[in-house]
Specification:
Blueprint lengths: L6 E2 L2 H14 L3 E5 L3 H14 L3 E5 L1 H8 L6 H19 L6 E6 L7 H18 L6 E4 L6 H15 L5 E6 L4 E3 L2 E3 L14 H11 L5 E5 L18 H14 L8 E3 L7 H8 L3 E6 L1 H17 L17 H4 L1 H22 L10
Helix pairs in contact: 2-12, 3-4, 4-5, 6-7, 7-8, 10-12
The structure holds zinc ion (ZN).
Zinc ion binds next to loops.
Length: about 350
């Protein structure tokens, strides 16, 4: 097995990682982060499980990283993502695993955000000889296929010289993620929630000559966690898309790198099945959000007086050691680490880091 240097990887290294996942039939969790606490928890969890990992920022997560009060919210979305990427570049290698840096959904109104990040990426590439992000996602799944693919072509042409990869979306992931999508989409009989293999083939024909790309294909997956029964996962849709591309172009097994959005709350056997159809990345956000808040919340409920008084009015006990924000944040970090340990196990990536 090829070994890679630890830290943020890109270009050929990223392709090596995807190939190893395809051959080993495992996937990496792509975890949405909002600050240093969540980033460090993801890196710690990956190191503890000897798995490589994907760190990703939504536009809202990036804005929060720069500061929710920053006056210019567009600038905050751009600079927050740049700042988070620099944090990961500096620290990731010291955790001894390979890290993919990625940005999440950019719909039509967020194309300027993506273009600003690519401009920062071009500056970073000139200065450092490597891209700032491994990959970006462009999500024009709500537009026509023609608009989706022509914009994908345009951006991939800019990103390929930086050795970056593009993730596109075909068919709609249900639910809502940071202002993209809508809860009204959810419903097992909604045809929009299921990607057409012909669309995947057209994307392959148009994008493969330009650079490296991956496809978020919809097979009934949704963002968020909903009541059981509202969602019907049909991983066989992924199999059919792979088959059409493979047979049309006479390629090997699972030629396309596929991405599973809305991994939170998904049935374990459907996750396992999707791994056999070339899924190398599964997004997880809602479940790690809950894991952080559940643990931090439990910590507060344990000693509620410490969050109302510096010194207990009845017993005189000083609470400095309890309300120190590091205690609360560390509890949340440990919640994320515990949940990701489960994800590395579900995705069969534990113990498989390619880092030397
Ligand atoms: Zn998503």
């Amino acid at each position: 097995m090829t070994k890679l240097r630890p830290g943020v990887i890109f270009g050929e290294e990223y392709k090596t990682l995807i190939q190893a996942a395809r051959e080993g039939q495992y996937a990496l969790p792509a975890v949405n982060v909002v600050g240093t606490n969540s980033i460090n928890a993801v890196l710690e969890a990956a190191a503890a499980n000897k798995s490589d990992v994907i760190v990703q920022l939504s536009n809202g997560g990036a804005q929060f990283y720069a500061g929710a009060g920053m006056p210019d919210s567009f600038q905050a979305r751009v600079l927050g993502a740049v700042s988070a990427a620099q944090h990961v570049h500096l620290l990731a290698k010291h955790y001894g695993v390979c890290v993919v840096l990625h940005t999440d959904h950019a719909n039509r109104k967020l194309v300027p955000w993506l273009e600003a990040l690519i401009s920062h990426g071009e500056d970073y590439f000139r200065a450092n000889g490597r891209p700032l992000f491994t990959s970006h996602m462009l999500d024009l799944s709500e537009e026509t296929l023609e608009h989706n693919l022509s914009e994908s072509e345009r951006l991939l042409k800019r990103m390929a010289p930086l050795q970056m990869s593009l993730e596109i979306e075909l068919g709609c992931t249900g639910g809502e993620e940071d202002g993209v999508g809508s809860d009204e989409d959810i419903g097992a009989d909604n045809p929009k929630l299921y990607t057409q293999p012909e669309d995947v083939l057209e994307a392959y024909d148009r994008l493969n000559p330009l650079g490296h790309f991956s496809v978020a294909a919809s097979f009934g997956n949704v963002h968020g966690v909903y009541k059981p029964g509202n969602v019907k996962l049909r991983p066989e849709i992924l199999r059919e898309s792979q088959k059409l591309v493979r047979e049309t172009h006479n390629l090997g097994e699972n030629p396309l790198p596929l991405v599973f959005h809305g991994g939170s709350g998904s049935e374990k056997e459907k996750i396992a099945e999707s791994l056999g159809y070339g899924v190398f990345k599964m997004n997880i956000d809602t479940d790690t959000q809950f894991a952080f808040s559940e643990k931090a919340g439990a910590y507060v409920f344990e000693t509620p007086n410490a969050f109302k008084h510096q010194i207990d009015p009845e017993t005189g006990t000083p609470y400095k050691k309890v309300y120190d924000p590091r205690k609360l944040l560390r509890e949340g970090e440990q919640g994320i680490i515990t949940r990701l340990t489960e994800a590395f196990d579900d995705l069969r990536s534990a113990g498989k880091s390619l880092a030397q």
